[in-house]
Amino acid sequence: MQRVIYGNNMTPSWILLFPSLFSLVHGQLDIPSLNENSRGNFGRRLPPTEGELQDILARLDFLGTERCSANVAAQWSYETDVNEYTQIQALEAQRIYADFQNQAWFLISRIDKNNIRDPVIGRRLRYLSVVGPSALPPDQLDRYNRVINDMLAVYNEATICAYNDPFRCGLRLYPDISQIMAKSRNWDELQYVWTEWRRRSGMRIKDLYQQLVTLNNEAAKLNNFTDAAEYWMFPYESPNLQQDIDEVWEMIRPLYEELHAYIRRKLRDLYGPEKIGSHSLLPAHILGNIWAQSWTNIIDITIPYPGKNNLDVTQEMQAQGYTPIEMFRIAEEFYLSLNLSAMPPEFWAGSIIVDPGDRSLICQASAWDFCNRLDYRIKMCTKVTMKDLITVHHEMAHIEYFLRYSGLTREFRDGANPGFHEAVGEAVALSVATPRHLQTLSLGNKYIDEFTTDINYLFTLAMDKLVMLPFSIVMDRWRWDVFRGYVTREDYNCHWHRLMEQYAGIKPPVLRSEDDFDPGAKYHIPANIPYIRNFVAGVLQFQLYRALCQAAGQRSVDDFRRPLHRCDFYRSPEAGRILGIMD
Q1: pLDDT tens-place string over residues 3-48
Q2: DSSP of 155-179, one letter per residue?
Q3: Quick one: residue 548, left, alpha or beta (phi over 0 = left, psi -120 to 50 = alpha)?
Q4: Is 522 contained in some domain?
Q5: Angle, nearest 10°, between helix axes 50-79 and 119-128?
Q6: CB within 8 Å of 181: residues ≥ 6 apart
Q7: Helix orientation angle between 119-128 and 84-108, rounded to the nearest 10 degrees
């Protein structure tokens, strides 16, 4: 590894003051232990100058880039060729990278940051001072990982038996349970499946989750946060994030309530007034999704204008002989039309565009930044469908974003907040999915521009994007309240349904108790993955879309002939300029 050579053979003062930092930034990652006496001496040392901090940060950036790149490469190898060997390699690379981050945190956290005047240095140190669960002592970190793995094992292995057929068992969440919730209109069957999934998943991890809450809060305190709620909110850089979220939701709520009332009427007509009252909450099990987070699967029984033009152009794509690689080239041309970047050669050489069929891989579409400012890829088992055409554009938006901030230091090579990356991708997807853009691609010629088509299109959007918002709030509002100690184990389930009623107007189909743990029936709870980013992205995507459409000259608040939902900013260099400066 390259060593730093200093002029005049002089040893910089910060090396004398911070020998542990010297060993770290020269690639020697074995940090000497600090006994109580040495910790006291360390605290009395003079802080490094800002120039010396620049040297430290430059070296950390170099080492961090190396280790991050090695880690991402190992994760890519595993996800594109799932076997025991690649899994072991991925876990080892993850451990090495986590160790590096932890050691950097251990040292950076002991630097006095109060007198740093350079805002960039201060911000970089602030990011490096937060390392998350890796701050836990080894035994607690091991327990933290084991608790999550144990909960996920329960979740991933959960199965149920079929309704009215106790001998047909082993039904999994995907594809079995999700298909039943999407296709069945049998009230009793849906109620049974809804209840059984929660009995086989969430109910079994309640005790483990209580342990995770304790470990999350302990990790947060070691990172100098009051609790895990404050730690989870940290990336948004808002002192009042919960209040901000609620204020935004209150502006959106009237539209949601109108959709809620419309769906209630449609479902009341289908299932009868004895099951759904004229002013009642919506039963969670009849909304087409096991968590009621999206209602798109009941569009067939609720769409305002049945039989009117459908905007799904999958059949037309297949009739025209579209291929996955052509879909990627079309997406690239979309960004080129905005004067943004072409995909680099490494992208085309390294990306997986279709399932190779000769090995097991994780087909979840994803965009990858290999941390080296050179290698960017997409992994996707692309099918010739309209949904996948939109997904390709979405994932390529991530690559464009990676390319835009590639020149920044490692701490800043990320989205502006955890929801921003998704918002950019979804703003592009909104443009691509419009009838106007589909007609530009010669895919929408037979779709008529009329009022009923517009209403059906907007309704379809709302059944996905609008409905997701209250669920996204509940997912993290519930956890924030638990982390803060506002809710005890004895009230976990009741508080969950209280929030679902408050924000979403949804109730469980059967009586629940504190023996149940319904939050745990959603993957992100046992996986310990924050969810409020989905709310942020869900709102921000429309704000970005509006700004890009205004830049493209296709949106005017004073001209009803140019409504936002008909905007396609394809071939607008000005929209591309706006998109390009958001790094």
Answers
A1: 222 233 333 333 333 444 444 444 444 433 333 333 333 344 456 8
A2: HHH--BPBTTBTTS--B-IIIIIHH
A3: alpha
A4: no
A5: 40
A6: 190, 193, 194, 285, 288, 289, 290, 297
A7: 130
- Residue 548 inside a domain? The answer is yes
* 3-class SS shares of the chain: helix, strand, coil, % to 5: 60, 5, 35
Query: What is the domain extent for residue 350?
Result: 313-453+535-580
Question: pLDDT per residue over 275-306, tens digit each?
Answer: 999 999 999 999 999 999 999 999 999 999 99
Find out whether 236 is annotated in a ligand binding site.
yes
In the set 196, 218, 316, 395, the catalytic residue is 395
Please tell me which residue in 189, 411, 524, 565 is annotated as part of the active site. 524
Residue 136 Cα to chain centre, angstroms: 24
Q: How many domains does the chain have?
A: 1
Q: Is 398 annotated as a binding residue?
A: yes
In a domain, 198, yes or no: no
Q: Are 410 and 371 in contact (CB under 8 A)?
A: yes
- Burial 155-164, CB ≥16 within 10 A → b, else e: beebebebbe
395 is catalytic: yes
422 annotated to a ligand binding site: yes
User: Which pair of tokens denotes residue 559?
Assistant: 């001209």
3-state secondary structure string across 478-533: HHHHHHCCCCCHHHHHHHHHHHHHHHHCEECCCCCCCCCCHHHHCCCCCCCCCCHH
**pTM (predicted TM-score):** 0.89
Mean pLDDT of the 238-264 span? 98
CA angle at 210 for the pair 216 and 100, rounded to the nearest 5°: 25
Has residue 513 been placed in a domain?
A: no
Question: Would you call 421 a catalytic residue per the annotation?
Answer: no
